[in-house]
Amino acid sequence: MKNYILTVSLFATLSLFAQEKSGAQQFWETLKTHCGKSFEGEITEGPANDDFRGKRLVMHVRSCEENRIRIPFFVGDDKSRTWVLTFENDRITLKHDHRHEDGSEDKVTQYGGTTSNSGLPKIQFFPADQETSDLIGYASTNVWWITVDETSFTYNLRRIGSDRVFSVKFDLTKSVENPSAPWGWKD
Where in the sequence is the signal peptide annotated (predicted)? Predict the structure, then answer.
């Protein structure tokens, strides 16, 4: 009887453990709660001469599919940037989709990286992948990370071995009017 109780207890414990969601799954679910909404942000770290300073910064969690979330990032009137997040095999990939005003792809586009583990519920790290290294040699040491919690979303970049750091923080407590479609999208 003791072995039976021990076996049942062990099975119940393993079942509970198996039902726990990974950090990547929790992060993904939190991000999806903002689908369809837009938020204003501000630069919290970056070069003083950064082209983004003094411009309105808006992210729009515009497209949410089961395993892909697209977040256009507007810098003033520039609608060229979209962060594309893909969830597969308990890993998240971040790619940067850059477009020209006519919708055609920029020559520097689709760079980014994939998490090396499932991460934590509120933060995911994306080291530069081989495609990025081949496309933009100096970005080989880039590490991007995104944080998301109840009040904020931050997009961050650090180029290891340099002083290049960029962070923009969006206030998730106050949504703003959704902007028109980014370049290359149809409303």
Answer: 1-18
